[in-house]
Write a structure and sequence with these properties.
2 copies of one chain form a homodimer. Helix content of chain A is 67%, strand content 0%. Chain A is mainly alpha-helical and 202 residues long. In chain A, helix 1 packs across helix 4 and helix 10 runs antiparallel to helix 12. The longest helix of chain A is centred in the C-terminal third of the chain and has 20 residues. Chains A and B meet through helix 8, helix 10, helix 11 and helix 12 of A and helix 8, helix 10, helix 11 and helix 12 of B. The structure holds a DNA duplex (18 and 18 nucleotides).
DNA sequence: GTCTATAGGTTGATAGAC
DNA sequence: GTCTATCAACCTATAGAC
C-alpha cells in the first residue's frame, strides 16, 4: 500500500517523483519560464506552497531533472582512453554513445532543447554536458584539427539531438528517432574517414 | 544625414530596425520570455512605452523577426516539382537548400531554436516553416516511405540546424557551420541512396 | 505534508502631456 | 516619437496554522 497516511497526504518520495514527471512535461511543452509553479501544483491537485516543501525553489526542480548526465560523458571518455587508436575509433565511439540513448534520455534532451538559453546559463555556472563533448572531440580529433572537421565529428555524436529536431511535428516514435540517429552517425563518421566522393577512388 | 529630426528623435524605420536587431540578440541569448520589453528599450536608451509606438505588442516584434521564411520553402517546393525525378534528387534538393543558408539565416535559426516552445505555439496558430518540410519530404520520399527513411531525409535538409546545435559553446564561425552542414547533407543523402554498408555491394 | 494568506517584486500594456 | 505615470495581472517565495 505504499506509504500513504490515509488522509490527503502522500509519501514524500512519491509526490516528489510526480512533481518531477509533471515538471519535465510542462518545461518541455511550454518552456521553463512560461511554466509557473502554479501550473505544476494545480495539475497535481496541490498548492504552490506544497511544492516548496519538496524543493527549495523552482530551479532546484530543473536541476533534479538535469542531474545524472555528465556521468555518462565521463564514462565515455574513460572508454575512449582505453581503446586502441584505430581509424574507425570515431565511428565506434559515436555509435556507442548514440546506441546508449534511451527514450527517457530523449525526453530529457527534448526538455534541454526547449530551454536552450536557460541550460546555457546553468552551463556557465558549473557542471556541463555539452562542454564535456569538447574533451571527447579533443581526444578523438586532436586540438589541431580544422574547425570544420571538429564540428563534423561533434555532429556524429549529436545525431540523437539532430534527429529530435527533425522529428518535431512528425509522428515519429522514439525508436524511429534513435534508429535514424544511428544511421546518421554511421553516415557522418564515414564521411570523416573518406571526406571526398562516395566511391573509394582517388 | 538620414531622416534625423535634429533633437532626440530618430526616423521611424531606423528605430524600428534597431529594435529588431536588439530583440533578435536578446531573444537568442536569454530567451523570449526572459527578455522584458524593458531590457530591449533600455539597451536603446528608450522607454518601454516608446516600443509600443513601433510595435503593437511584444509578440509582434517576434513575428517581424520570423516572417519571410516560409517563402523560401515554397520556392524550394516549386523547384522540386520542376525537376526530373532522378535518384539523386534528394541530394540535389537538400544541398540546394543548405547551400542557400546565409549567416543571417543562421542567426534567425539560433533564435528559433532558443525559443522552441514559443515557436511551436505560433506554428499551431498559422504559418509554419517546419511543417512545410513535411510537404518537401512527401514530394521526395512519398507518404508511403517508412518513418525511419522519412526522418533521415528530413535530417538531410536540417543539417544547418544540427550543425548549429553541435557548434554551441565552440568558437566555430558561421562559415564553418555552413560548410559542415553541406558535408553532412552529402553524407546523409548518400546514406539514403545506399542504406547498407559503405561499399556498393549487395 | 499540505494549507491560507501575503509579502515583495516584475511584467506587458495604456493614457495623456509634450 | 518619446516621455511620465499608472494599472492589473502575474510571478516566486515565505510565514505560520493545522
Amino acid at each position: 500500500m505504499s506509504t500513504s497516511t490515509g488522509d490527503g497526504r502522500r509519501s514524500g518520495a512519491e509526490t516528489r517523483a510526480q512533481i518531477l514527471r509533471v515538471a519535465l512535461r510542462l518545461f518541455t511543452e511550454k518552456g521553463y519560464e512560461a511554466t509557473s509553479t502554479r501550473d505544476i501544483s494545480e495539475e497535481l491537485g496541490l498548492t504552490k506552497s506544497s511544492l516548496y516543501y519538496h524543493f527549495r525553489n523552482k530551479e532546484e526542480i530543473l536541476a533534479s531533472l538535469t542531474a545524472q548526465r555528465r556521468q555518462d560523458v565521463t564514462e565515455l571518455l574513460d572508454w575512449i582512453a582505453a581503446q586502441p587508436r584505430t581509424a574507425d575509433l570515431p565511428l565506434r565511439a559515436a555509435l556507442r554513445w548514440v546506441s546508449a540513448t534511451t527514450p527517457e534520455n530523449l525526453q530529457a534532451m527534448r526538455m534541454a532543447h526547449a530551454n536552450q538559453p536557460l541550460m546555457r546559463r546553468l552551463t556557465a555556472s558549473g557542471q556541463d554536458v555539452r562542454s564535456a563533448f569538447g574533451e571527447v572531440v579533443d581526444a578523438l580529433a586532436g586540438e589541431d584539427a580544422d574547425p570544420r572537421r571538429r564540428l563534423l565529428l561533434r555532429m556524429a555524436f549529436d545525431t540523437a539531438g539532430a534527429a529530435l529536431l527533425s522529428a518535431q511535428g512528425t509522428d515519429a516514435a522514439p525508436e524511429d528517432v534513435i534508429e535514424a540517429a544511428r544511421a546518421a552517425t554511421v553516415a557522418l563518421a564515414g564521411a570523416l574517414t573518406a571526406p571526398e566522393g562516395q566511391g573509394d577512388g582517388a
